[in-house]
UniProtKB/TrEMBL annotation:
PANTHER family to which the protein is assigned, alphabetical: HEMIN IMPORT ATP-BINDING PROTEIN HMUV (PTHR42794:SF1)
Keyword Nucleotide-binding: yes
Domain of life: Bacteria
InterPro entries, alphabetized: AAA+_ATPase, ABC_transporter-like_ATP-bd, ABC_transporter-like_CS, AdoCbi_amidolase, P-loop_NTPase
Protein name (record): ATP-binding cassette domain-containing protein
Start and end residues of each ABC transporter domain: 2-239
A Pfam family matched in the record: CbiZ
Length: 486
């Protein structure tokens, strides 16, 4: 619908943007991204016709831009620019009504009932109707931004060009504005071109992205562009890590500040065991992966707790229970991983070793009351509290993939223990592979070179295998000894 072919343009004779070719489909949201001064605003001014082309052509709906009259352009396109701060003594409603101006006919342009309806509607949708009689200049930056969006929408444009539309807006209003625009985009087939500095916002709302650098369009394409770590690092000259949004399938980017000196070189830990909990504390956060009750998934944590509960514990809200117990014990609820067990905590095993240069610590509690053979179809009740809780701490630097690999290594070693000790699933009388509610955690200091593998073919994987095997045997031995005493 909008096609730019070899477009160059700028100020006076100087070309700021050079040789740009791109296509924006009707009803799409096209995000223009790029560092400060890369030419985004200049390119948007070429598209609106505010700046003349030096070279190339711009076609909108199969007609060259210069063939549209200025009135036709004003009807077709609305612009929300950074420079739009009007400081006249207009009320909010008057400013929004100005958006209807290109549509008003006749010599004495006057506002029709239809115009009034549109103005009312957009004011409501952008939540500015509450300020309708207030003077525009008396509004906050964010409120002004919403009024200017209302004015642009009142124009009922086919194309909306936004220069940093979420400037001044807080999180709620940023989201509301863009969701609202998305609705317009769908319902009115509105084409949006938005200059955005926040790449994560661009990812949430754009269909297509264009990356400008030194006036050149270095990449244009779908959201996969936002996963090109090296390209983005090179253009923005900043260290980043791309990943996915935790809830929806959109890329998200995290900034990495200049590497600060690592404050610790080994597993400096403190452990405190009471009747109610084991608390392992590290002075610095560790990168973790676990299926713990609190802090599950990928996380950063300094505190690792395993709480003792009665074997008939009512599991209706285990996470909240752990939060309450942490508060009672005056342990942080923010950077803590929490597990539960019905096993007597004194029977834990703690092994700290240096295996081929890898410092590794394991803290394991174990019982086999609800052992299960995962390969058999018999239905076990699984609302009992975890009996094999494995916590492994490593002085290493693991990628997310290596963390997953470590869990796999720990699980293989655990299953080997069940096989070697001939622990059976009581329902099927076959060798069990674990118990029905086991928890496993891997925590890594993230010191040194990062590694992507921690499977059975690696030094790291074998170190995990060794401490899990030995630690679990010791913990089960303690458990059996206590059972015999009872
Ligand atoms: N009116 C002007 N006259 C001359 N040069 C200008 C003018 N406006 C901008 N420039 C120059 O054009 C270049 C690109 O500016 P532009 O505003 O298009 O970048 P941008 O990518 O929108 O930047 P930002 O992210 O900082 O808003 C800059 O070097 C700027 O100094």
């Amino acid at each position: 619908m909008i096609t730019l072919q070899n477009v160059s343009g700028g100020y006076l004779k100087k070309s700021i943007v050079k040789n740009i070719s791109l296509t924006i489909d009707k009803g799409h949201f096209y995000a223009l991204i790029g560092p400060n001064g890369s030419g985004k605003t200049t390119l948007s001014k070429l598209i609106t016709g505010v700046l003349p082309l030096q070279l190339g052509s711009i076609t909108i709906m199969n007609k060259l831009l210069q063939q549209y009259s200025s009135i036709e352009r004003a009807e077709m396109m609305a612009v929300l620019s950074q420079e739009a701060a009007v400081e006249f003594d207009f009320s909010v409603e008057e400013i929004v009504s100005l958006g209807r101006y290109p549509h008003q006919k006749g010599f004495f342009k006057s506002i029709s009932n239809y115009d009034k309806e549109i103005v009312k509607d957009v004011m409501e949708k952008t939540y500015v109707d509450q300020y309708r009689n207030k003077l525009f200049k008396q509004l906050s930056g964010g409120e002004k931004q919403r009024v200017l969006l209302a004015k642009a929408l009142a124009q009922e444009p086919k194309i909306l060009i936004l220069d940093e539309p979420t400037n001044h807006l807080d999180m709620r209003h940023t989201l509301e504005m863009l969701q609202h625009l998305q609705e317009y985009q769908k319902n009115h087939e509105l084409t949006i071109i938005a200059i955005l500095h926040d790449l994560n916002i661009a990812s949430l709302f754009a269909n297509k992205i264009g990356l400008l650098h030194h006036g050149l369009l270095v990449e244009t394409g779908d959201l996969s562009l936002l996963q090109k770590e090296e390209k983005l690092q090179q253009v923005y000259e900043v260290a980043i890590k791309t990943n996915f949004h935790p809830v929806i399938a959109k890329p998200q980017i995290s900034l990495i500040p200049n590497k600060t000196k690592q404050l610790h070189t080994n597993l400096d830990y403190q452990i405190n065991t009471t009747k109610n909990f084991i608390h392992i504390h590290f002075p610095h956060p560790m990168r973790t992966i676990s299926n713990a009750v609190l802090g599950e998934g990928l996380y950063w944590s300094r505190n690792f707790c395993n709480f003792h509960v009665h074997y008939n514990y009512n599991c209706s809200n285990p996470k909240q229970d752990i939060l309450n117990w942490l508060q009672q014990a005056k342990i942080s609820t923010y950077d803590t991983v929490g597990m539960m067990t019905a096993v007597i905590l004194e029977d834990k095993s703690v092994i700290k070793e240096n295996i081929e240069g890898i410092e590794i610590l394991s803290v394991i509690t174990a019982g086999v009351g609800n052992a299960v053979d995962i390969t058999q179809q018999h239905q076990n009740s699984s609302d009992k509290i975890g009996t094999v809780n494995i916590m492994i701490f490593l002085d290493a630097h693991l990628t997310d993939g290596a963390l997953v690999n470590s869990i796999q290594s720990a699980t293989e070693a655990k299953t080997k223990v069940f096989t070697d000790l001939q622990i059976k699933d009581p329902n099927t009388q076959t060798i069990a592979t674990g118990t029905s509610t086991d928890s496993t955690l891997i925590a890594s200091t993230q010191n040194g070179e990062s590694t992507t593998y921690a499977g059975s073919g690696t030094k790291l994987g074998k170190a995990i295998g060794k401490v899990v095997y030995n630690g679990l045997i010791e913990a089960l031995h303690n458990y059996e000894k206590r059972k015999k005493k009872i």
